[in-house]
Amino acid sequence: MGRKILVLTGSPRKNGNTNTVVGWFAEGAKEAGADVEVIDTALLKSRNNGCIACLGCQKSDKYECVVEDDVKPVLARIPDFDVLVFATPTYFFGPSAQLKLVIDRMYSLIKFDPTEGNYVHNLGHLKWALICTGGGDIRPGVSLVDKTFKTVAGFIGSECDSLLVSNASMFSDELKQNSEIREQALAFGRKLAS
User: Fold this and answer.
1) pLDDT value for 2
2) Burial of 104 by CB count in 10 Å (0-12 exposed, 13-18 middle, 19+ buried)?
C-alpha cells in the first residue's frame, strides 16, 4: 500500500487556481499508488476564530484540541498520515485565513513544558509539503509563505517540499490551461507518493 497523504486546502474559491493545482497533484499521487484525502478547510465550521489559547490541550494527556467543532477531528487524524500537504493561495504575503485557522490549532498536537522549555509531539514521521499559488512574482509573497512552512516543518524535525506557482492571477483562468504547471503538479504528487 502506498503512502497516506492528507491535503489541507485553504482556498475560499472552490474552482480557483489553488484547488486546480491540488487536483493535478492528487491525480499524480494516486497514479503513483498513494491514498489521498483532500479536506477543504474553507468549509470547516470553527467554534472560534482560531486557537483561543485556552491551554486545554496542554492539560490533557491526548494530542488533540479540546474545542468541539469541525476542526477537532481533522487535527486528531493528522498523525495517522505519512504526508501532510498544505495548499493555499497567497493572501497579503501569507496563507489564507481559512488554512491559518487550522494551522494555529495544530498547537494542540504539541505538548510544551514551560519550566524546561522543551516540547514533545507525535508528528516527527510526517513529511510536510506546500502547494502555494500567487498572483504576482515568486517574491515576496509566495516565497514568504514557503519560508513560513519550512520553518514550522523544521520546528517539528521535518522538511517541507514545495510546489510554488507564481503569476497565477485569480482574475484569469490561464493556469487551468497551463500544461507545464499541470505536469509539475502531477510530478510533485508522484514524488510525494513514493
Assistant:
1) 85
2) middle
DSSP assigned state of 168? -
Nearest to 58 by CA among 125, 107, 118: 107
- Domain borders along the chain are 4-193
pLDDT at 86: 97
Query: For 136-158, what is the HEC assignment?
Result: CCHHHHHHHHHHHHHHHHHHCCC
pLDDT reported for residue 81: 97
Q: pTM to 2 decimals?
A: 0.93
Contact 106, 79 (CB under 8 A): no
pLDDT at 1: 66
Joined together, the cell numbers standing for residue 158 give: 521535518
Rounded Cα distance between 73 and 185, Å, is 28
Fold of 4-193: Rossmann fold (3.40.50)
* pLDDT, mean of each 10-residue run, the chain (194 residues): 92 89 97 97 91 92 92 95 95 90 93 86 92 81 91 92 85 81 96 95
CA–CA dist 118, 194 (Å, integer): 32
Return the closest-CA partner of residue 180 out of 163, 193, 194. Answer: 163
Q: Give the three cell numbers for residue 134.
A: 500567487
* CA dist., res. 112 & res. 114, Å (int): 6
Q: How many other β-carbons are positioned within 10 Å of the β-carbon of residue 19? A: 21
